[in-house]
Amino acid sequence: MITRDHLPAIGLGISQIIGYGTLMYAYAILLPHMAEDLGLSLSDVFGILSLGLFFGGLMSPVAGKLVDRYGGRWVMTIGSVVAAGAVLSLSRVDSTPELFVAILLAESAGMFVLYNVAFASVARLDLSIPPQKSISIITLFGGVASTIFWPLTLALYTALGWQSTWVVLGIALLLTCAPIHFIALRGTKITPDSPPRSPRPNWPELTGPLRKQGMLWMVISFVCSGYIMGAVMTLWVTNVQDLGHSATLAALAGAVIGPFKTVGRFFEMVVSRNLYPRVTYALSLGLMFAGFSVLLVVGFTLPGLMLAAALYGMGDGIKTIARGTLPLALFGAKGYGARLGWISFVQMGINASAPFAFAWLTQAYGGWWSFLVMALCLCAAIATFQLIPDPRPKASDTALG
What we know:
Helices cover 78% and strands 0% of the residues. By secondary structure, it is mainly α. It has one domain: Growth Hormone, Chain: A (Up-down Bundle), CATH 1.20.1250. α8 runs antiparallel to α9 (162-184). The longest helix has 34 residues, at 209-242. The protein is globular.
């Protein structure tokens, strides 16, 4: 049953569709065409995107600390306005420096409106539902961003060109996300002197040396599993075309990822009361690796491509939830926003190179080899996941690590 306390998560879920669609997924369609008009190579434009992601990531700890201190309402509302202006500025670029500045501004503002800040914002509200459920609801909506925005952006580009497409996307971001953030995040905030109304899971936290060890291996695993995210979002269409499919079919397969992210997140939300976040993360890694395995073996066929997209989508959808709930389970709610911000900063700092690195791999060796290296990144994530300590006295997921 949906209550008033579900509305913040539902509102943020809708805003994540628009936010990720305009600030992440649109690049996959528009940057290659912008490169042609600006006289740049594919690796050049994705190298610029990598730099924008890296420097934009510096804002993530700032956003997290602001949410911990003031709540997310004004942080996300102002972030939406700035992000919309940055997207609009992309329509006006006609040189490499201008492209870099516009992307840098867009990705910096994105740190104030995307998942990590959304997770921390609902965790600061005094709601009758626990924060891990709100996180699941937010990601349930956000999973369809690629489904909507890859075909939509391609259709807008075909009809209007890349300049006008950025204008449409910027206006959509401004008119939807800013009001949603301002309205949805109203309400009483949790303070140290006022215990929350929602029941919180009795998850023991890591303590002593295990706390540092857990943070180290968790962040390394997050980096390895997240390294491919930017590459998939920006290079999926290009790489799938290199496997022998048309641009339309590649975009259609990419659109399949979104609904199956939602399928995975719905499954997690239904069974989340029985799943410890460490198990959730293990499940996500297994599904993502299965998707890449299918893609590498039979991705040149239509059924293989669609199955790979579905498996990867389910795994990536569940991983997004684990990215918010696993730090909460292992390290507790105190300083949660700042902790997510610093984790995001490390991830963004390293993972920012992914679009450039994989664009170079695609140019030099082809899409299949680019996908193979993505699969190897997942192998590294699975290996380091095994080293994350389990603080529970009797672990029920021994077989999973």
